[in-house]
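Q: I have 119 residues here and want to know how they pack in 3D. Can you give me a structure?
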Amino acid sequence: MSETPRAVDNKLYEMLQDEQIEEFNAYRAAGHTVDLRGALLRGLDLRGLNVAGLDLQDCYFRGADLRGVDFRETNLEGVSMAEAQISGCYFPASLTAEEIRMSVELGTRIRTRGLETLS
């Protein structure tokens, strides 16, 4: 787990910081990549963001607007979604509603590893 959220030196990360979601999605579709593990994405409007296949491990989404984002094919291990808006989001089936609620309400880091053995 990353100690502190970090800025990423990458054009795609800069697009996210500027809330240029359509441009970000288009660059990714064109084959450009970005390492967002541990990225600081606090307070951003990320509605419409295509995160399929991204590794968002340890990302910090405090207060971000994530409404409608589809996280089903995304690594969310260690993500913090404190006070984020998550209405309409899809999450991996292995992630419990309680785990998501605790992250949004209490700021806990999401735990995805081993959840399949808890049921």
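Q: Anything worth noting?
A: Helices lie at 11-17, 21-29, 97-106. Residues 115-119 have pLDDT under 50 and may be disordered.
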